[in-house]
Amino acid sequence: MQIVTTRQMTKLEKQAKKLGVSPKELMQNAGRKLAERIMQICSSEQHIPERTSIVFLAGSGNNGGDCYAAANILVYRGYHVTVVNLVKEPSTDIAKEYFSQLPEKVNIITGYRNENIEAAIEAAELDYTTLYSKDITTLKNKKDLTAIDKILIKEKERMTAVRRAVVSADVLIDGVFGTGFKGKLDSELMAIFAIGTSAYRISVDIPSGGDGSKGTVSPGCFKADETLCLGCLKFGMTQYPLKKMCGKISVADIGIPPAAYSILDGEHGYHRLDRDSLAGFPPKRESDAHKGTFGTVLVISGSNSMRGAAAFAALGALRSGAGLVKVASVPRCIDTVSVLAPEATYIELNSNSNGFMKFDDKAKELLKDALKKSTAVVIGSGMGVTDDTKEILRFVVSNSFCPVIIDADGINCIAEDIEILVNRKSEVILTPHPGEMARLLNCDTESINENRIMVAEKYAEKHGVTVVLKGAGTIISDKFHTAANHTGNAGMSRGGSGDILSGIIGAAVAQGFSPYDAACAGVYMHGLAGDSAAKKYGQEAMLPRDIIDCLSDAFRTLKEKQSRNS
Q1: CA pair distance 68, 30, nearest whole angstrom
Q2: 26-65 in b/e burial notation, b at 16+ Cβ within 10 A?
Q3: How many angstroms separate the CA atoms of 311 and 327, rounded?
Q4: What would the DSSP string read from start to end of 318-377?
Q5: Where are the alpha helices (DSSP H) in 169-305?
Q6: Beta-strand runs (E) in 400-520
Q7: How far apart are CA 122 and CA 107, in angstroms?
Q8: SS3 for 208?
Q9: Is there a cis peptide before residue 257, judged by omega within 30 degrees of 0?
Q10: Residues 234, 482: contact at Cβ < 8 Å?
């Protein structure tokens, strides 16, 4: 599914105008789609229009204009409609036009302060909470009101009207800010958004307070039950915490001509992973196929104390269609893995006194031979960060002619010596979680989580690699494309899940898919298997081994979806 950045959405709207679809028509279409969705909700809840309160919280820009366009339709369908202008009066020409067309039946509330009152309130150091809590009954009976007294009375009346409107709503629509919002919400908007109500809450395009580019949110962001995204899904809405604030997400066609999308040709492409993204995966298994048809995955992983990592990576590859899987590790790790995955073959490397792989002449010869026969390499899980493992990783990326998937301790090795990555010969896929990405960039994890999309894109572009930045809404990026995943669940948040993912990606690479396509397929299937495991065992009880066992369910589900779509 194609999705866009907020900058690209602006370009599409401008191109639509050049192709004959005016901003006014786009707003009219958006208002109609919003009104239709509201009526669908009311119908499903068996709301009688004349007894149903629809309340729009409108901003001053075009998001507010979308609300006015919808309100104009709904009021003539018999609904009790209220528009609360929360920021200031309409500021764009088309928003002004639609606001002026609202019939008298629409209850309009001025929910913002004028500039003079704003200045006086700030000078008196009062805010929404303190103002609303004031009892002005006595104040109203005073004979001689001071200037501040008059302001207090007016402000209390304004805020009471806003609060009553919100509380009375059966459906509450947030059209305050659009995708261009940056920064933080002010305390008054935060308080209004937090008013307790049983209303069904809809955001127009994006919840107010959300950053459509980054996926971050301001404190007090509007929490919607549903978000009606206009034209295209915005990439930031695939990321947490914004995705959590969106509720159910649907996309409304507002009339942007298909030809307008050509304006994005040649730009970095964005999409949300779905069955269409995985066209051709898994490859068809012809009746005369043999093990060599589906490639060889070399897994270099594990140590005495982290044997499960090698087992999970190997099993992930085996369960995802690889023809052959070879595991290179220390003897004690191989003893364990061979019991769990007897289908694999094994390469014993010497270990040091701490149980980690040694890079000696034996390792060099064995790995050199194995690399010649491999179509994908998975390296890093559980191998530790030592001088020897750094040299093993350096040797692999400079001697492998097939793509290399680097995970876990392999990434930590690069964080200590970036030259390992710079001097590579092969294509590389990195699969860091936010903590590992922070080590790569020598920053804190919070900075990564606040800029996930930009971090993945910039790192992929700078180093010419494919980055799989793991987490809720895993991001896959190379220098041409960025994708966001939606499969998976919190039950997968356990040690070992990432090792399985590296094995799945390795199998996809071994079967002939490009690094980017293989990473997309691996991430999607990993999450799909995790969702199957959660259904069987529950998120609390499921284990990484259950993800492996449920890969067969994931492949079956994908094929069913693909056959329905064909």
Answers
A1: 10
A2: bbbbbbbbbbebbbebbeeeebeeeebbbbbbbbbbbbbb
A3: 9
A4: HTTT-SEEEEEE-HHHHHHHHHH-TTSEEEE--B-TTSPBP-SHHHHHHHHHHHHT-SEE
A5: 187-193, 242-246
A6: 404-406, 428-430, 466-469, 475-477, 481-484
A7: 29
A8: coil
A9: no
A10: no
The 10s digit of each residue's pLDDT in 31-86 is 999 999 999 999 998 888 999 999 999 999 999 999 999 999 999 999 999 999 99
Q: Are strands 324-329 and 345-348 parallel, antiparallel or unpaired?
A: parallel
Please give the domain boundaries of the chain with CATH numbers for all domains.
Answer: 6-114+158-264 (3.40.50.10260), 291-565 (3.40.1190.20)
Which tokens in the block code for residue 16? 């639509």
| Under 8 Å between Cβ of 158 and 174 | no
Residues, the chain, total? Answer: 566
Would the pTM count as exceeding 0.90?
yes
Asked whether 504 and 548 are in contact (CB, 8 A), the reply is: no
Please, which pLDDT band fits residue 229 given cuts at 50, 70 and 90?
A: very high
For 72-106, what is each residue's pLDDT tens digit? Answer: 999 999 999 999 999 999 999 999 999 999 999 99
Residues 6+ apart with CB under 8 A from 558: 275, 278, 281, 282, 524, 525, 528
Separation of alpha carbons 378 and 502, rounded Å: 7
Separation between Cα atoms, residue 470 and residue 84, nearest integer Å: 41
Asked if 503 contacts 542 with a C-beta cutoff of 8 angstroms, the reply is: no
3-class SS at 429? Answer: strand
At 133 the pLDDT is 57
pLDDT in tens, 234-285: 999 999 999 999 999 999 999 999 999 999 999 999 999 998 888 899 999 9
Question: For residues 299 and 326, is the Cβ–Cβ distance under 8 A?
Answer: yes
What's the half-sphere exposure (Cβ side, CA atoms, 13 Å) at 409? 25
Section 292-299 average pLDDT: 96
Joined together, the tokens standing for residue 23 give 């901003």
Q: How far apart are CA 312 and CA 317, in angstroms?
A: 9
